[in-house]
Specification:
Elements lengths: L1 E7 L6 H6 L3 H11 L3 E7 L7 H6 L7 E4 L7 H6 L2 H7 L5 E6 L5 H13 L3 E8 L3 H9 L4 H16 L2 E4 L2 H11 L6 E3 L20 E5 L8 H10 L7 E5 L5 H11 L2 E5 L4 H10 L2 E4 L8 H8 L4 E4 L15 E3 L3 H13 L1 H19 L1 H21 L21 H16 L4 H26 L7 H4 L2 H8 L5 E5 L5 H10 L2 E6 L2 H13 L6 E5 L13 E5 L8 H12 L3 E7 L6 H8 L15 H10 L2 E9 L2 E8 H10 L1
Parallel strand pairs: 1-2, 1-4, 2-3, 4-5, 5-6, 6-7, 8-9, 8-11, 9-10, 11-12, 12-13, 14-15, 14-17, 15-16, 17-18
Antiparallel strand pairs: 18-20, 19-20
């Protein structure tokens, strides 16, 4: 399959933790089964290195197992930055690598591994695997508008978009991810969580009497209080005992609630995995009333243990349950839950039937021997995709910033960004640093323009009011009464000309959204009769009529074949003058410097040219016109040109 499988664990998840909590057998079983397909297994974790006993438990037959950990307990960002040498050593000699996350929250480390493997020339296929929808859980916990939710969605989206294969545990989850991040369904795969054999099915008489087992974190999302309130409703008819296994911030509150309600309940801290499975084998039934789950292993394991399972009608819980056959799905309210639990407890044959059907179904759907081939298929697909589109030299690792910056004073944030960029640039050789900063300058300029428009009360670029170029066009318009504004944008200049010159203006614009904005702007200025806007391609679509003047404001630089177009417009529209505004190449020293460095020097990547005075005059002349007025302001050339015949007549008259 590949020289290495790299399993990247989510923050705070470690092999030692698996070992100490007794889940090593369950969590490691998958990789033991997959090991023969790989030359080695590598585990990446931001937690401590495994102990000698834990390392000894990491057996995978003849396949060596290596752990890239965080032995010095570095803060996560520092650990990620320092990951390089450890990864290089772990993957030494590997030409092909499959990288897989255990959850989407491992995104940063997984992308770091991917970038480093690609930069080293390895074929690296990334599988973004998640057992639950990370972004939705965080949005529900902190609010959809919260900074945490926004940051998580950004990281989850980046991981999924860069992955070669995205794996989800439920169809609903994959559909959500595909819709959110524009994923190709071909690149997604459904692989459920797996279960191990939980032993033979026990008869109802071998199970604890009237015991309802609840397990998981004691947090609001799990809705354990709902189970306690349902138990109250059964006190007189079918008394039950609620056994709660787990830890969490609501533990004391739930104990107090059970006492207040008079419910028979025990609260047991988190158990070793094998002991929890034994509770599942012995309970009368298993209940999970959570608000949302991914594909909960506890529900699958309870079904595998033959426990009749009752779950809330909530996302992620009923994926493997056929109501009334392999389990029961219940509205998340105490009364409906009580109405289900009572009859189920009373009917021993029904419980036995449901438990037997659940065990049979879940072992067919989620047994390890069913899941392993699916995992290997995903790995093959990831490698095949990676071989088709291997980035040259590897993609750059994402640069992450602290969400706390969003709540800082902007000037303090500027200082933080400045220091960070300075620290990066000074570590580069001088030529590379120059190219980096020159290229960054162009993108910063572009972002400044976008931000300026968003911040303007009227949604206009501030250059409309700051540079005074409207004044130039108005003053140069002369006595023109019919004006054609080619590439009229949102109509701001066209409206200025109509209002201040008393002219009738037609604006031609390709973008329908800009046409809508221009019409609204004209109506707001009460110029709807004077300004008309039409959609069309100025290079091919002729506007009906002739015009005294043509306006080309920051338009010409976007076009090819400019002299021919100028000549065509003069022929079509018979103008007496053409007013042009274009960016100048010689606006400052950084422009030719960027060209020397091989960095794009344009103000806008859609510019075909940025003009020197000589180039501009030459193109105007080639278009059959003569420049009669030319100014260099604000890093732009503003000019008036007349058709050569008109210009000659003007000179004779003078």
């Amino acid at each position: 399959m590949a020289d290495a499988l790299v399993v990247v664990l989510s923050p705070g998840t470690g092999i030692e933790q698996w070992f100490r909590t007794g889940v090593m057998d369950r969590e490691w079983a998958l990789y033991q089964q997959m090991a023969p397909a790989y030359g080695r297994l590598v585990i990446v974790t931001d937690t401590q290195a495994p102990s000698t006993e834990c390392q000894a438990a990491l057996t995978a037959g003849d396949t060596p197992v290596r752990v890239v950990a965080n032995p010095e307990a570095l803060e996560r960002s520092a650990w990620l930055a320092d990951l390089g040498d450890s990864l290089d050593a772990a993957l030494d000699g590997c030409g092909s690598v499959v990288i897989k996350t255990n959850q989407f929250s491992a995104s940063e480390a997984a992308l770091r591994v991917l970038s480093q493997a690609q930069a080293a020339g390895k074929t690296a296929g990334l599988i973004a695997r998640g057992g639950y929808l990370w972004s939705r859980f965080e949005a529900e916990a902190h609010g959809p508008e919260s900074k945490i939710a926004a940051e998580v969605a950004s990281r989850e989206g980046e991981l999924c978009r860069r992955a070669h294969v995205v794996v989800g545990t439920t169809r609903e989850m994959l559909e959500d991810l595909s819709w959110r991040y524009g994923l190709d369904p071909v690149s997604t795969q459904l692989i459920p969580n797996y279960i191990l054999d939980s032993g033979p099915l026990l008869s109802p008489d071998e199970r604890a009497f009237n015991t309802v087992l609840v397990c998981g974190q004691l947090v609001e999302r799990k809705r354990v209080a709902l189970v306690l309130r349902a138990a109250v409703l059964l006190k007189d008819s079918t008394p039950i005992k609620v056994e709660v296994v787990g830890d969490g911030p609501l533990r004391n509150e739930l104990i107090a609630l059970a006492k207040e309600l008079g419910v028979s309940a025990t609260f047991t801290p988190k158990l070793q995995h094998e002991e929890l499975l034994e509770r599942m084998r012995r309970c009368t039934m298993f209940v999970q009333m959570s608000q949302r789950e991914g594909h909960p292993k506890t529900v699958l394991e309870a079904m595998s243990a033959g426990a009749p399972v009752v779950v809330a009608d909530a996302p992620g819980l009923g994926d493997q349950i056929a109501h009334g056959v392999t389990g029961l799905i219940c509205p998340a309210e105490p009364s409906p839950l009580a109405h289900l639990l009572g009859p189920l407890i009373e009917d021993k044959d029904w419980r036995e039937s449901i438990g037997e059907a659940a065990q049979l179904h879940i072992r067919r759907a989620c047994a390890l021997e069913v899941v392993v081939p699916k995992e290997l298929d995903a790995a093959r697909a990831a490698l095949a995709s990676a071989r088709k589109a291997e980035p040259a030299g590897g993609a750059a690792a994402p640069v992450r910033w602290s969400p706390e910056l969003l709540s800082q004073d902007p000037m303090l944030a500027v200082r933080a960004w400045r220091d960070s960029l300075h620290g990066y640039a000074k570590r580069l050789d001088p030529q590379t640093a120059a190219r980096f900063l020159a290229a960054l300058d162009g993108w910063t300029y572009s972002m400044q323009g976008e931000a300026a428009v968003r911040a303007d009360p009227q949604g206009l670029h501030p250059k409309h009011r700051l540079t005074g170029y409207h004044d130039f066009f108005v003053d140069a318009m002369g006595e023109a009464k019919a004006v054609l504004d080619l590439g009229s944008g949102v109509g701001a200049l066209a409206c200025s000309i109509a209002q201040r010159c008393g002219a009738s203006v037609v604006g031609q614009e390709l973008d329908p959204a800009n046409i809508t904005k221009a019409q609204a702007h004209a109506e707001k200025m009460q110029l709807a009769a004077e300004c008309r806007f039409v959609q069309g391609d100025i290079t091919t679509d002729r506007v009906e009529g002739t015009f005294d003047a043509i306006v080309l404001s920051n338009v010409l630089e976007h076009l090819v074949g400019r002299p021919e177009l100028l000549a065509k417009w003069v022929e079509w529209y018979q103008p007496k003058r053409v007013l042009i505004r274009v960016p100048s190449y010689d606006r400052e020293w950084r422009v030719p410097w960027k060209d020397e460095l091989g960095v794009d020097s344009r103000l806008d990547e859609t510019h075909e040219i940025e003009f020197t005075r000589e180039a501009l005059e030459a193109e105007v002349a080639a278009g059959g016109m003569r420049v009669t007025k030319l100014e260099h302001r604000w890093g732009e050339y503003w000019l008036v040109a007349e058709p050569a015949q008109e210009a000659g007549q003007s000179a004779s008259a003078a």
